[in-house]
Design a protein that fits this description.
By secondary structure, the chain is mostly helical. Helix content is about 65%, strand content about 0%. α3 packs antiparallel against α8.
Length: about 350
Amino acid sequence: MSSSATGIPGQGHHPPAGRTGSGGTGEQPGGPLAAGGLQFSSRPRRGLADALFKAVTGAFASLILVLVLLLVLELVRSSWPSLKAFGWRFLVTQTWDPVRQQFGALPFIFGTVVSSLLALILSVPVSLGIAIYLAEMAPHWLRGPVSFLVELLAAIPSVIYGLWGIFVLVPLVRQLEVFLGTYLGFIPLFSGPPYGIGMLAAGIILAIMITPTIAAVSRDVILAVPNSQREASLALGATRWETIRNVVLEYAQSGIIGAIILGLGRALGETMAVTMVIGNRPEISASLFSFATSLTSVIANEFNESGGALHISALVELGLVLFLVTIVLNSLARFLVWQVQQRNGGAARV
């Protein structure tokens, strides 16, 4: 009779090979015992490292919220005399008279928003054309050098653009204003004397400055579109243009809108180049030929020469207004991105 038939425990019944750990202890591989008989457990240490890493990265992320909160608090504190003196009327008043201590932000808000929107109108088509050509149509030997030049333009300091604007752009804009005034002078947008310096020059210089940013980011977004999307469209008989229009741009549109948001952010916050070509006159006019000013321009021009505490407080309140205008416009742009994502099933991300 075999031992397995006796029913005696431990007789004739052995565990399968590999079930015992080193030294016959019965521990599973990867358990507390490792090679060489050294006992360790990586799970507690791994959990501690993960928790520590999460805490450190969370602290770094919270620094952004803290900095924004401190920025807003300081702006509100420094602008409090102006907030008390003028209230909400500060946003709708056109008077800016440091001698009489009367201040209103409406001309500066108008100049900032109009010049930025004009820059987007001029820049976005050109930027998308550059991005599409570099990503889809440019030969390989040309794509690298041109992409480098585009990124180089984005890194040029704004004061260089301003100097170029004064000596090169303004004379050209003056000739353009003469032409537009001759043939389209009956339209209020193109009426008035052709100074060269003014809202039109500011919009053009901003468009030149934000074009490299929008083009570079849009190019990267278009290059990220999977080739399978293009190949499927071409296999179905679509032309190259139809593939780019209906597949590539449709797939990348949320990222392109994100690139436009970045360009808008730079246009809203630009100071030196705009200050040098916009004219710096606090007035609201329907003509693009007229002088204007912006929130950043008046702060840069008057802060060091401000006369009195209320004047300084009004300038700081202009900074607070610029902060709020930037948040509102970027929030609207983000909402537009969200709508695009919802329409596309939420597949694209910015």
